[in-house]
Amino acid sequence: MLGYRIEANVMRTTRIEKVDDENEVVKTLHFRDHLCANAEPGQFVMVWLPGVDEIPMSISSAYQSRMASITVGRVGEATRMLHKKTKGDFIGIRGPFGNSFRPIEGRVLVVGGGTGIAPLAFLLERLVASAQTVKCFLGAKNRQELLFLSRIRSLFAGRAETEIETSTEDGSFGHKGVVTELVEATLATQTFDMIYACGRESMLLEIFHLAQKYEIPLQVSLERIMRCAIGLCGSCNIGKYRVCADGPIFTHKQLAEVKVEFGFQKRDFDGRRISS
Ligand SMILES: Cc1cc2nc3c(=O)[nH]c(=O)nc-3n(C[C@H](O)[C@H](O)[C@H](O)COP(=O)(O)OP(=O)(O)OC[C@H]3O[C@@H](n4cnc5c(N)ncnc54)[C@H](O)[C@@H]3O)c2cc1C
Ligand code: FES
User: Fold this and answer.
1) How does pLDDT run across 219-236, given as a tens digit for each residue?
2) Which end of the chain, N or C, is less packed with Cβ atoms under 10 Å?
């Protein structure tokens, strides 16, 4: 059975309805698309910029009947072009693709770093409705790069069983250091029924080891080079899995099966294995 709906793989042209400047290097683009508006947290779209590239982006919100957004960190040519887009401009999209985070009912810990916070902010909207308690740790280089802090604070406002903590590498906001230090200190005294994480793979690897040590189930979102996004080309392989079709969300058990590559290797644009 296909892991995506056939019509999702048809390229659509969509108009940008709104652009939010999250900080100097991150923007959120809102667009109208009924398939993306029905996406689940963790799913992604392929964004086409004619003459430049087609790149994967997580869906950072899906709302009203037809609106959705992506949150784009500026790193290279395609993301630089996306940052130049303004209200009324058009982009091409295919998707949504991939599996999604599975919300649960118990005590959950959500850990995000950098632009990895984007799909988690969307997930948190579901978790506040399903989970018994929600603890959220956000990490970034500095306060300015702490993504969606006010969005998550408003989501948590008035809900007793929610908590948010932050870490910045320069100490400008919250704990001075990296977010995994908060995770390590917390897991030493508290237990959870699930950890959800998205961010740099080195961070995900540390969380994987902590989850293993404290025997807590884990769901993480992985990134790899993506081209077809439907499991055909093999550019996103990790071990026996294709991140676009089997993921991008992987469980602790699946990550253990690909531990030679997870956190250590990825493929370059020519399919060669390189260190990650
Ligand atoms: C499932 C998934 C979800 C993602 N979600 C987000 C998100 O929500 N926000 C965000 O800012 N970024 C996200 N990314 C990363 C984003 O796709 C890359 O930053 C982007 O492709 C870089 O393109 P560029 O031309 O600007 O930079 P380039 O100079 O081409 O590349 C910079 C780096 O980005 C990575 N990259 C480039 N092209 C691809 C590609 N086709 N597929 C995967 N990685 C690539 C490579 O590691 C490369 O070294 C996601 C990636 C994946 C796989
Ligand atoms: S991107 Fe082609 S198989 Fe995953």
Assistant:
1) 999 999 999 999 999 999
2) N
